[in-house]
Amino acid sequence: MPTIALINGHAFAGGFMLSMYHDYRIFNPSRGFLCLNELDLGVPLKPPMSSIFRQKTTPQTYRSLVIEAKRFSGKEALESGIVDGLGGLEEVLGFVKERGLVDKPKMGVYGVLKREMFRETLGYIDGYEESEKTDEEVEKKEMRSKEEGESRVAEWKRNAAKAKL
C-alpha cells in the first residue's frame, strides 16, 4: 500500500532517512528543516542509507544533502522535489483523495512495482552484512598501508640524519 510521511518539524539524519523510505512526504510549511547532517557529525553514509536519497532526488539535490549538509525549508524541499506537498494532516488526507491512493493497491501489484523501482536500495539492504565485511577488510588494508608508509618515512629520516653530504 502507499505510505505517506507527515513531517511536522525538523527531520535530520535518521528521521529524514525514514521519511524518504515512504512513497510520499508532506512537510510542515512553517516549522522545521530537512537535513542530512552526517557531514557535520563526521559520520559516513553507508550504501543502504545513501541510495534512497540518490534514487529519490536529483543529482544536484543529492549533492546539496550529502556533501553540503544543506538544511531545506519546507518551500525549498518542495521546490527540489524532496517532498510532495506542504501542510498538516488535512493536506495529507486531501493528497490521498486527490491521488486516489486508497485504490492503488487493489490490483495486487503495487508492492512488486515498488520493489522493482527501488531494487538498488533493497540490494544494498539485503547485502549489508557482506558489504560491512568488505568495508572492514578495505579499512584494515588502508591502515596497514598507512603504517607501512609512516614506517618508511621514519626510516628515511633516520638514514637522512646519518648521511654525509
Report on the structure:
By secondary structure, the chain is mainly alpha-helical. It has a domain at 4-104: 2-enoyl-CoA Hydratase, Chain A, domain 1, CATH 3.90.226. The chain contains nine helices and five strands; from the N terminus they run ββαββααααβαααα. It has a three-stranded parallel β-sheet with strand order 1-3-5, sandwiched between helices. The termini are far apart.
Question: How would you summarize what this structure contains?
Answer:
The chain has 165 residues and is mainly alpha-helical. Helix content is 59%, strand content 8%. The strands form 2 sheets. Strands 1-3-5 form a 3-stranded parallel beta sheet, sandwiched between helices.
- Total strands: the figure is 5
Name the average pLDDT: 91
Helix-and-strand structural type: mainly alpha
The CATH C-level name of the domain at 4-104 is Alpha Beta
- The CATH topology of the domain at 4-104 turns out to be 2-enoyl-CoA Hydratase, Chain A, domain 1
The assigned CATH architecture of the domain at 4-104 is Alpha-Beta Complex
Helix content: 55-70%
Biggest pleated-sheet summary: 3 strands, parallel
Total helices: the number is 9
> What gyration radius follows from the Cα positions, in whole Å?
23 Å
CATH superfamily of the domain at 4-104: 2-enoyl-CoA Hydratase, Chain A, domain 1
Work out the strand percent.
Answer: 5-15%
* Terminal-residue CA separation: 78 Å
Can you tell me the residue ranges where pLDDT is under 50 for at least 5 consecutive residues? none
Principal-axes geometry comes out as elongated
Identify the strand order in the major beta sheet: 1-3-5
Write the element-wise H/E pattern from the N-terminal end onward: EEHEEHHHHEHHHH
